[in-house]
Amino acid sequence: MKAATWQGTRKISVETVPDPTLQADNDAVIEVTSTAICGSDLHLYEVLGPFMNEGDIVGHEPMGRVVEAGSASGLSVGDRVVVPFQIACGRCYYCSKGLQTQCETTQVREHGMGAQLFGYSQLYGSVPGGQAEYLRIPHADYGPIKVGEELPDHRYLFLSDVLPTAWQAVAYAKVEQGDSVAVMGLGPIGQFCARIAKHLGMTVYAIEPEADRREMAARHGILVYEPGEDSVAAIKDATEGRGPDAVIDAVGMEAHGDMQGAMAKFSQLTAQFLPKAISQPMMNNFGMDRLSALYTAIELVRRGGTVSLSGVYGGQASPLPMLTLFDKQINVTMGQANVKRWIDDILPLVEDPTDPLGVDDFVTHRLPLADAPAAYEMFQKKEQGCIKVVLDPQAPAQA
């Protein structure tokens, strides 16, 4: 089969690799009909290279049809399913608590990490990912989400990651109807964080440097601002000088901005070109994130409010303004999304004919799998109005 593979920092290549096969009676194999590039895939593309191996199949936002079903998978050939990005058993202590990202059955204990993820480095098990023509699904008796036949793929695809991640970010923000929320960053996750909060009856502000991303959010009733102190002041003025009740950081480790961010970027990039024996411990023990979005969130949120982190952070030595956090009595919540925990809330919304979350206004580029290398570069550089790319493994390569 063909698959998008990691070949080095900023180098994705579509290669011919062996077809996946069933390895356990609760496995399944799907033919992938749609698979998206996630903002966190860009971390593999650049920052997390020390934990990647040449030839790793990437991608963790797939859906498709079952072509092989293990006897204990609970699936049948032909079932249309969406695959959550984490691999969980559904039976252990953490799964029973709705913390599927901490699944005790699939935890990557070798690296002290939580549940295995599809296509996401040694840290999460080096499990082959979903940017491929076919995908093996471990624990298919629990993970896959069966969906209907009537709606196009893009209505369901984002149940794999984007929608549950955004839903959890809003839920963790501890806000309710009538409250105010600010969203830092209007990439794919930020777009849906803002729309979900708006749908749930909140006033939503968003800060984003790219004009096309601000325009997309504004179409859905979001009050948008460019980065800068003037915008922070304007949002505070709009919230009676206090700041919003919650701020959602949907940017994460690759934020742009201050000198600390420039130094962190330098250390991140330097690590990519060192031997793994040096770069992995360096990232594990001394890695720093670019924190300008998080610092702005802490400055902006009202006293006693909540900062909810949905952007991925990977540094172990990132400096935080503990005095400010303590003095302002700020709650900080975070974590990988526990996909299955939120599906019952989200599925009716993506199937609603009125499309309350605007899923039809989200995908900016749909390309053949063969175009994955160019798509990664375009997404990373924010070119051509790129906000969300969906790859079609079954489509022929463009001439």
From TrEMBL:
It comes from the Bacteria. Keywords: Metal-binding, Oxidoreductase, Zinc. It comes from Nesterenkonia flava. Signal peptide: none annotated. Its cofactor is Zn(2+). Residues 188-254 form the Alcohol dehydrogenase-like C-terminal domain. The keyword Signal does not apply. InterPro entries: ADH-like_C, ADH-like_N, ADH_Zn_CS, GroES-like_sf, NAD(P)-bd_dom_sf. SUPFAM superfamilies: GroES-like, NAD(P)-binding Rossmann-fold domains. Residues 25-143 form the Alcohol dehydrogenase-like N-terminal domain. This is Alcohol dehydrogenase catalytic domain-containing protein. The keyword Transit peptide does not apply. It holds the Pfam family ADH_N. Belongs to the zinc-containing alcohol dehydrogenase family.
